[in-house]
Specification:
By secondary structure, this protein is α+β, with helices and mostly antiparallel strands. It has a single domain, classed as SH3 type barrels. It is 17% helix and 49% strand. The protein is built from 2 helices and 7 strands. The protein has a 7-stranded mixed β-sheet. The protein is globular. The relative contact order is 0.31.
């Protein structure tokens, strides 16, 4: 897997390319968490934290994600390349 250091504009470009299930790392209130994309929107990304996915025992459509601002995203994995905010 390849890792690339990118600026905020390039990271945003890659996030907008995301499909359902792509991995993001988010930083909120000084804490980092890994999450999976549920939906990419105009003002942010709706994600499901990976810890929620691991503990989930219901059907695939009954998870409610949380919307995070684009500014909270620190890295994204797209097509086998991890883009990390420099």
């Amino acid at each position: 897997m390849t890792t690339r250091q990118v600026d905020a504009n390039e990271l945003l470009t890659q996030v907008r390319r995301c499909m359902f299930g792509e991995r993001l790392v988010i930083e909120r209130e000084g804490k980092r968490l890994s999450a999976r994309v549920q939906h990419v929107g105009v003002t942010g990304v709706k994600v499901v934290p990976e810890t929620t996915l691991l503990e989930h025992e219901g059907g695939p459509g009954d998870l409610n994600g949380v919307t995070v601002d684009y500014a909270d995203i620190r890295e994204v994995e797209v097509d086998g390349i991890t883009y990390v905010l420099a």
